[in-house]
């Protein structure tokens, strides 16, 4: 494990200026349509409520498969993201498609369970058919400086994942500083994360562009050092197509084209898909449709 | 003792230098998703076929009837034809300025003067988009910069100095400030309207009248500003705009009835001006060239520093007197910084200045374009390693790829001379002392940058850099309240802020 007691300095003002500069990119015409479709293909359609039902999850899977019936050529979303007890339901509903089932695990969203319980839960969701596991780090241990614990825990969960992809949620809204975001990103990647993810969506602020830029830069440095590509998933608070395009610009100009695929970039979002559809149809027809034309699953 | 420990540590870190483990880990920016053109519409912009001189509140034909053409450097097409002011015209302009000074402007209630300047500021804001588009068409700078930097800052300068007009006695406690008379002002082509604002706003606020000569390749926004002066009802003769090349400027400098010269431009011309002013009682300020050192320490926030390096040298195609054109990077992080610069440069969009996504526009003129290319050739001949981004350049127009030169030394001409283009030289240093010595080893001393996460180092290094401006963990930040000016051959006097009032007043 690298020495994580060393802090990599991050200049918050500089990060904000860079984000503002990238937000000034004007994405028009064909490049806009392409961006909207690309964003749709990167959505992890998510439902993470205590009152989720099998019925709700099944209907969400229908939407994942066929987001807008009038445009059958649209890409499908990348994955459906659910709680552990819904994995088998989602798996069954998505059988025969390329859409992955992602499950949150490791005592989501607080992450305050024993390691044994976390590993057991991870193995269970993978056995139930989860293709991707979204774990949360132990923020308490991280903030206390016990990096070894956090590192070992991620490594252990990665092992428990077997063939499933591991996304590591840093819960950046609780990490206090951008330097901590950077450190947690590095720690997760060195411990074996396939993706790093900003937030559970249960803590405010969730995903922000400055935090995402810091994580993308961490991914870039990790790639320079190890030649291994790690994915990125901002999650929570991304509701509008315009925001999604801004995120894509961030990725495009920080990591380049190789990351602009669902294999390396995802949006964790529930309502984003509908705004993307609304904008895609608007580009196609020239007018905004009533929201009632889109399913609200 | 502490210093000693620190430097051993630095050496150890340097030996442990970062090397990219995989040469193949290069980022790919050539994917299918490329931004479409997003051109700023210029349909509504009115540029006349011909512009006359603005003297005594009216546009007047030049005495000798000569005109020269103003070219859009992005298309090489003529935009307009501009009057050339000769001796008779300059005489007329200075006379009009003198009359306005004696009869109206110097005796006007300062609060009234302030109102006029506020009005000019508001008119610039109202017509900001128009000014931005013309600035980009005439000078080649990206619309993002003229829209977000040049024009808002120009308005801010007028607002700032308008506020001083009736408070001058508070600016100079215990003294009675009096205006000088007629100010002859000569401005460069890199920030045409902004430099006009830097010159005209403090001159008017202190009660002087003005004869201003814009650069011959970028006269249009000054002439548009003349229209604003007319629209604002500014008394006739308070602001006069005489267009022309160096010859016209020299007439202004040598004119007996001019009381003060303010010049921004090259050090070469600055020296000529100083010679001609020697022995006269004209006051003068000179804001000249630079070869700004941008010093990156290994404890700096690297990614933000890389962004700062890019901003320091590629802002406005590098046509910036305070550009950070010499990168001094601590050896332990040099490879990493250069690798990051290479990747970052691939994302710079070079092209149509009116496209909202353009990062680097057109080189201002054919002359400057040739000069930059001569320096590129010179650099290669001096044995430097040249790296350019792989972007496509438009077929027409004067464009230059963003360029890095490594393997250079302090003795090379590309390190010593101001190129005034998107060309950066890279040198490494080991200790802070070495970095400071290299930074100061130049006849220039306008601006520089220091990048480190350590606050004490900012002050320690920053105070030893012989530059008028030192930015810490940022670059190219401007504000009307902040003085700006050079050490050594970068100039004399300060513009901006309270300091910017001094060159325009006599204190009694």
TrEMBL record, chain A:
Pathway: Carbohydrate degradation; 2-deoxy-D-ribose 1-phosphate degradation; D-glyceraldehyde 3-phosphate and acetaldehyde from 2-deoxy-alpha-D-ribose 1-phosphate: step 2/2
EC number: 4.1.2.4
Signal peptide: none
GO molecular function: deoxyribose-phosphate aldolase activity
Protein keywords: Lyase, Schiff base
Pfam families: DeoC (PF01791)
Catalysed conversion reaction: 2-deoxy-D-ribose 5-phosphate = D-glyceraldehyde 3-phosphate + acetaldehyde
Classification via InterPro entries: Aldolase_TIM, DeoC, DeoC/FbaB/LacD_aldolase
Record family assignment: Belongs to the DeoC/FbaB aldolase family. DeoC type 2 subfamily.
Record's protein name: Deoxyribose-phosphate aldolase
Native organism: Fodinibius salsisoli
Gene: deoC
UniProtKB/TrEMBL annotation, chain B:
Species annotation: Fodinibius salsisoli
Pfam families from the UniProt entry: Aldedh
Top-level division of the source organism's lineage: Bacteria
Record region (Disordered): 1-41
Record bears the keyword Oxidoreductase: yes
Biased composition range(s): Polar residues: 1-11
UniProt KW keywords: Oxidoreductase
Protein name from the UniProt record: Aldehyde dehydrogenase family protein
The Aldehyde dehydrogenase domain, residue ranges: 63-508
């Amino acid at each position: 494990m690298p020495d994580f007691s060393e802090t990599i300095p991050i200049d918050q003002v500089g990060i904000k200026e860079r984000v503002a500069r990238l937000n000034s990119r004007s994405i028009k015409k064909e490049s806009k349509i392409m961006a909207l479709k690309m964003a749709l293909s990167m959505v992890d359609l998510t439902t993470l409520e205590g009152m989720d039902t099998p019925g709700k999850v099944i209907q969400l899977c229908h939407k994942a498969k066929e987001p807008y019936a009038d445009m059958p050529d649209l890409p499908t979303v990348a994955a459906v993201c659910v709680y552990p007890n819904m994995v088998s339901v989602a798996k069954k509903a998505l059988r025969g498609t390329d859409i992955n089932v992602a499950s949150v695990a490791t005592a989501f969203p607080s992450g305050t369970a024993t390691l044994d319980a976390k590993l057991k839960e991870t193995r269970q969701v993978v056995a139930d058919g989860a293709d991707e596991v979204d774990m949360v780090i132990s923020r308490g241990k991280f903030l206390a400086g016990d990096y070894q614990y956090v590192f070992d825990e991620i490594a252990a969960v990665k092992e428990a994942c077997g063939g499933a992809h591991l996304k590591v949620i840093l819960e950046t809204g609780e990490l206090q500083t951008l330097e901590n975001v950077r450190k947690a990103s590095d720690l997760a990647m060195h411990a074996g994360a396939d993706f790093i993810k900003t937030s559970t969506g249960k803590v405010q602020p969730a995903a922000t562009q400055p935090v995402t830029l810091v994580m993308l830069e961490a991914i870039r440095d990790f790639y320079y050092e190890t030649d291994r590509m790690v994915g990125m998933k901002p999650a929570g608070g991304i509701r509008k197509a315009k925001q999604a395009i801004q995120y894509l610009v961030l990725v495009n100009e920080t990591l380049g084209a190789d990351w602009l695929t669902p294999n390396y970039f995802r949006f964790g979002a529930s309502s984003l898909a509908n705004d993307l559809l609304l904008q895609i149809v608007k580009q196609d027809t020239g007018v905004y449709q009533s929201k009632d034309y889109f399913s609200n699953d | 003792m502490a210093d000693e420990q620190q430097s051993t540590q630095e050496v150890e870190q340097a030996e442990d230098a970062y090397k990219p483990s995989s040469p193949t880990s290069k980022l790919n920016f050539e994917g299918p998703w490329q931004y479409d053109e997003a051109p700023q519409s210029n349909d509504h912009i009115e540029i006349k076929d011909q512009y006359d001189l603005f003297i005594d509140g009216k546009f007047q034909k030049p005495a000798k009837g000569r005109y020269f053409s103003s070219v859009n450097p992005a298309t090489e097409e003529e935009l307009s034809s501009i009057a050339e002011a000769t001796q008779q015209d300059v005489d007329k302009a200075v006379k009009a300025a003198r009359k306005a000074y004696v009869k109206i402007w110097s005796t006007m209630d300062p609060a009234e003067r302030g109102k006029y300047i506020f009005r000019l500021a508001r008119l610039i804001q109202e017509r900001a988009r128009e000014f931005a588009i013309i600035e980009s068409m005439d000078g080649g700078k990206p619309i993002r910069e003229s829209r977000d930097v040049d024009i808002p800052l120009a308005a801010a300068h007028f607002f700032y100095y308008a506020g001083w007009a009736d408070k001058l006695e508070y600016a100079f406690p215990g003294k009675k400030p009096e205006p000088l008379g007629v100010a002859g002002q000569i401005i460069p082509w890199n920030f045409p309207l902004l430099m006009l604002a830097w010159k005209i706003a403090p001159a008017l606020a202190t009660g002087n009248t003005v004869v201003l000569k814009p650069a011959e390749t970028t006269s249009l926004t000054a002439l548009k500003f003349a229209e604003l002066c007319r629209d604002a009802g500014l008394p006739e003769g308070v602001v006069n705009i005489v267009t022309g090349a160096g010859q016209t400027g020299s007439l202004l400098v040598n004119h007996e009835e001019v009381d003060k010269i303010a010049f921004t431009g090259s050090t070469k011309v600055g020296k000529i001006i100083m010679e001609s002013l020697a022995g006269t009682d004209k006051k003068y300020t000179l804001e000249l060239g630079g070869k700004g050192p941008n010093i990156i320490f290994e404890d700096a926030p690297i990614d933000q520093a890389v962004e700062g390096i890019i901003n320091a040298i590629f802002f406005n195609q590098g046509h910036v007197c305070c550009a950070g054109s010499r990168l001094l990077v601590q050896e332990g992080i040099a490879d990493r910084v250069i690798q990051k610069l290479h990747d970052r440069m691939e994302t710079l969009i070079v092209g149509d200045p009116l496209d909202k996504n353009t990062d680097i526009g057109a080189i201002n003129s054919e002359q400057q374009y040739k000069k930059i290319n001569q320096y590129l050739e010179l650099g290669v001949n001096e044995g430097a390693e040249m790296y350019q981004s792989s972007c496509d350049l438009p077929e027409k127009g004067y464009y230059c790829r963003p360029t890095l030169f490594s393997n250079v030394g302090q003795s090379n001409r590309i390190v010593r001379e101001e190129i005034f283009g998107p060309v950066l030289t890279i040198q490494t240093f080991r200790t802070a002392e070495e970095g400071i010595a290299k930074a100061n080893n130049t006849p220039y001393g306008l601006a520089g940058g220091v990048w480190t996460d350590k606050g004490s180092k900012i002050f320690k290094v920053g105070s030893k850099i012989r530059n008028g401006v030192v930015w810490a963990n940022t670059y190219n930040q401007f504000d009307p309240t902040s003085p700006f000016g050079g050490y050594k051959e970068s100039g004399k006097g300060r513009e901006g802020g309270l300091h910017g009032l001094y060159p325009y007043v006599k204190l009694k």
